[in-house]
Queue: 2 jobs
Job 1
Amino acid sequence: MPPDDRKHDQDLRDAADLDEPEAPPNEEELRAAAALRDELERSGPPSAEVAWLRAHLRLPTWDDSLGEVRARGLARAAREQVQARRAAAALLAARLPPWRQVRRALIGTGGLVASATLLFLVSSAMLDQMRRPAGTTPHRAAQAELLRTSLRLRESPSRRLDLMLEDRLQLLRQSGYQGLGRTRALSSLSGPAAVLARAGGTP
Amino acid sequence: MLGSDVAQNPDIKLDGDRQLLRERRAIERAQQGDLTALEPVLAQHVESLFALLLGRTGDRTVAEDLLKDTLVMAMERIHAFRWQGRSIYHWLRQIALHKLIDHHRAAGRRRLVQALRAELETEEVPSPVHALSAEEERCRARQRIEQTLAAIHPRYAQAIRLRLCEGRPRAECAMALGTTVETFDVVLLRAVRAFRKHYGDPDAP
């Protein structure tokens, strides 16, 4: 149905809510009214619309009761159903050998969630490893040595920070980052990266 | 209404308290593993639950199916029930309404689902401890119909009452509304659409 027709029909439906019960009907309403009339007067199985109306306009009465016997029967049936389910589950669990019980646990919801979590952690670790620049791990050992030396010499914390920064800058330069220059103050610093830079002839 | 009767008659209150005590003991036994103890408690509330479900579905078969599902879930989850000083009926009623929500959701009746959810969230606590009787549930169902009819145009409500509730012939209904039979057919169509829309039925044409 084209969008304009749908809007038109919606307008018609909205008109039903307005205080205009006697407004002149259009073709669609005339057709629908005739269909409803025929459905209400038909004696066979009701249409969906008529069934809905009869169901929701049905005023309940005290005749709509189940009776005490039926009520007890329904309660008993519910209890039997639950007990039967529990017995069947217990029997099934008892029959399985231990390895199958473990297998069922693994392929069960908990096992799948645990596997997904493990996969996530492994893939995160691998991606993290791939993102690190080359030489990171050996560099950390050198950095640790730098810190130990500075502590042994009892240098000030600000000096240690300068050493760490210079070392980090050297690492970045070695990995190809060209945007950094050297200042005179940094030139005077010593450290493993600075030593490597001097050995490589990099100013 | 049970609530007003309880307030006025101390004997009823005493019986009600004894009933609550019996319920509580039966629930404790059921939670310890003896589900047979819960049978009479559930059986006692079956009529009220059925009246609730029948009033919301209008279909006896559907109401019975939902009632069975409610009872089974109550049996399965009795271990999760916490005694709060009032009848277990209110807990059972919540289960029944959730089953009804599932039923309407499966049929795509979004507005009815929303209406039921809103009702569950805003449901006031009835007579503090005692269960609702089947007649009280039927009263609520009748009230719902009356509220919907009151929300639509009075002429629409009259057309629905005459033709659908009372089953009068078209000609008689048209005469009562002071119009022709053909015009009455259109008025009834509009009335039905308005009723379904206000009742919360998304399938309303």
Job 2
Amino acid sequence: MKRSELYDVIARLDEDLQQQAYELEQRPVPRKQLFFSRILPIAASCAAIIITAAVVLSIFLPKMIGGKDPGETPDQNPPSGQTLSATKLSYKGLNDDIVTFNAENYGAKLISTDVKGVHANCSGVFYNQYTGELCCFEHAFLNASGISLPKMSCIDFAVDSADGNLAAAVIRETSGEKVTGLWILDRKSDKARRVPLPEGCRSYDSITVSSSKSLCNGILCLAVNDGKGTHSVYAYDTAFGKYVKLADSKDAEFVAAEFLAEDIILIKKDDSVYFINTVTNVLTEVAGETNYSCGGKVFSVKNGGWLAENGVVVAAYDAKTGRELSNEKVLVMTAFDDGTGKILLKDTTTGEETVLLDDYDGNCCTWSSDFSCFYAYSAGYGKLLCYFTESGKWKTGDVKGFAEKTETVDKQSYAVFENYYLAAGNAPGNASVYYTRKIVKKDIVPEYEDEKTDSAFWDEYRYLKHLNFEKETSFYFGEPAASGEGRFYEIEKDDMILFRDILLKCLESRGKVYRERRMEGDGGVVAGTLTCGELIVYFIEYSDCFCVSVEPGIPLTGGSDIGVYEFPKTVFENVRGSIVP
Amino acid sequence: MGLDVGEKIKNLRINKGLTQDELADRLGISRHLVSKWELGQRLPGYDAVEMMAEYFDVEPELLILGDSTVYEELDSCIPRGMKSETASKLIDEFSESLDKRDREIFLLRYVRFMSSKGIARKIGKGYGTVRNRLVVIRKTLREFLDRCV
């Protein structure tokens, strides 16, 4: 079809469908909104939590270690005895050469990290910020359990947020995400125990462990679909091996249950959100809200409140009683579609906002372990923020990041990727910023018109070119099982190198026509696909040849020949394995 | 990189010094429709695109310029010879049969022309997952449309 006709196909779609697509696009990016409620008591004799109406907020900008004087805004009520100090950027690298940090687990001692080498294909690889050691939960689990991971399976780990030695291991099929096993790993004792099925549940595929925050203090949250129309949420006590049902429903599916904070379980059911305070057994429904968080310092998290916001209204709830609160000042973190955002202090009564940190990319923040301080770092802005929850005051200081994204040495260009990680120190106002840097030599790639607009394509080319098969002896590929085609092929290392070069040729050929377009009546059929890093490769089998196209090329069954390369079948005769079915 | 037809229409209109009402008058359509186009809530049909292109003295292709890969992916799913009107109706029907997650991925990719990475961020899934789902969705759409021929 011509482009104009293809455009017309989209333009003629039902108006409702177009509207839905538009609304989807406008929907805020999830995971980037975080709200924190600061709730102070007025009288110790009050059983309920009472909210202050107004607080004078000020900024005190102390001199940073190793940095210049940061700001000029005077502090109206400087807090005594509280300082903000930040170490200079320091490199906390590991022995593995490519490391990135992921600051998802705010304040956690174990930080998720990606590595190459012996743990390249492992899940649950973490870096312990305090000991500097690398922990691989996958290796630990397989050793402790003695099981072999079934083919085309993977393990997801939910590390206990209160005890980094405990983790739930969810074994599932990589293709359809069907759960096939559930274990608890204790790294201290090097033991792994299978989690029994709850009563009435016949197989593990009816269980969902929704997120990495499902385990806290040895209590595991999970959702169960009994296949007969009842959906339930359970808490499993790993110490006693007992299940407690938290909630169930006959008409809607519980999507997720996870720990929002110690003793606070969050349950999502369609559009409704429920919080359960496991100390007070109070259940609060926050219907229709889309963002929520839990915090509070004065009474500790157990008695603290939580916040919910639907884009317009911010509401605060007392965790102990479930009562809705008002007149709150809340800490809000927003992120925009271009990756920048702000950290604001928002008055829920007046809607007034005060910017505490600008140009925040949403990836570098943490709580102190006692929730007395909230820290955030803006690499682009070069500022570190500390918000003191007790006083409602905050401070920022200069901690410069790296401005350069490319470096040139001896006329050779290098792309520089850096990640930042923030760790709360042991004292209020004390935080450290870590970074890692990965420097990749930029290849000279053929220039095409679309290079400037589609650098993702060439990023993938470079990624593929640098794939290292030295430690791999086989490589699996095939169509996801859910599509109905489950053919998988194993290729030995040396052949994988040949294969990679074939794929690189496909990519380099982009824009050139290698062969005339075949008519569909020739019997072409998709023989299989290869997922190789970020690429998807199509193999289309004809009587005398294979046609290979690489996404973002297109399969041969339609469209143009961009990214298509034809191989006679004889090319694959010397390849070990069973590429030719 | 999306399909910013609305943005382009708005820029062309403003450069010509027209209000939405005036443009609507020139094209013989309602202001309400022009507003929806510019906001991106609805796409103008190709005949309207041609009309606007002639009025603004630009190539129609300029207005519908978007990620060529997305067009190619869509083209690979539609049987040769199928009319665009028929394809639209069937794709409407097909999208109803998708589960919620696949539907979101499908709409964001083929109606909003969002990149796979952008979709992954938007729906909170991994990039690899989105790519794999798109492969499956396209295959299923191809089979569905082939059956309807």
